[in-house]
Specification:
The protein is 20% helix and 29% strand. The relative contact order is 0.15. The protein contains six helices and 14 strands. It has 226 residues and is an alpha/beta fold. The longest helix is centred in the C-terminal third of the chain and has 11 residues, at 171-181. A seven-stranded mixed sheet has the order 6-5-4-3-2-1-14, covered by helices on one side. The radius of gyration is 16 Å and the shape is globular. The chain has one domain (2-225): Metallo-beta-lactamase, Chain A. It holds the Pfam family Lactamase_B_2. One of its GO terms (molecular function) is hydrolase activity. Keywords: Hydrolase.
């Protein structure tokens, strides 16, 4: 299973032969200036919530690739108003079988408002189970006891977690989240993009290592095999 990092919380995964892009925020991110959004393939685009730093490049990628945008009802309504033709609305607690695997929408503690000022609905995380591997993407969230439910739905091979603090949980809470969801492999996202969320890489790596958890902090543009 291949994970390609585009910076912030934006990444792509090849799942069961389908290209799935998550939370595309690339062109407004100066750290991701080497990423060409016009070269990114996409069969599906998954949006965890409506903030601009998660949806900025959604319309451009979806219109070029004819990808299906999956998110909560309000974000999908916004996507339709951007001229995106293929969408699938979901909400917390719901699950659906897609070509890339089973997607379950789970709770995230955050806020959500769309770039045009309209209601972004409830933020979500995603648990994805496939014939290859299973994983959990937290989206933007605080540490929540709801994470203890995740192992009831899937035995995880890894989790993709926000670690930048200030707007989301920081690395200490992410370590606790990894314990709750019972994974020992974490990919960190949502850090370093803005001064508010810059991290001390050595300190963060040491915290995860001390807990016996393998932490990946890929560079922007890097692809890793999981």
């Amino acid at each position: 299973m291949r994970f390609t990092y585009f910076g912030h919380s934006s990444f792509a995964m090849e799942l069961q032969g389908k290209q799935v892009v998550f939370d595309p925020f690339i062109t407004p991110n100066p750290l991701a200036k080497k990423i060409d959004i016009h070269s990114i393939p996409a069969d599906y685009i998954l949006l965890s919530h409506g903030h601009g730093d998660h949806v900025a490049d959604c319309a451009a990628i979806a219109k070029r690739t004819n990808a299906t945008v999956v998110s909560n009802f309000e974000v999908v309504d916004w996507a339709t108003r951007q001229g995106i033709e293929k969408t699938h609305p979901m909400n917390q607690g719901g699950k659906k079988e897609f070509e890339f695997g089973m997607l379950k929408c789970v709770n995230a503690i955050h806020s959500s408002g769309l770039p045009d000022g309209t209601n972004g609905g409830n933020p979500m995380g995603f648990v994805i189970t496939t014939s290859e591997k299973n994983f959990y993407y937290t989206g933007d969230t605080a540490l929540t006891m709801d994470m203890q439910l995740i192992p009831r739905w899937a035995t995880l091979d890894f989790a993709i977690m926000c670690i930048g603090d200030n707007f989301t949980m920081g690395y200490e809470d992410a370590v606790e989240a990894a314990k709750m969801v019972q994974t020992n492999v974490v990919i960190g996202v949502h850090y370093d993009t803005f001064p508010y969320i810059q991290i001390n890489h050595a300190l963060v790596n040491q915290a995860f290592a001390s807990a016996g958890i393998t932490l990946h902090l890929p560079t922007i543009g890097e692809t890793i095999e999981l």
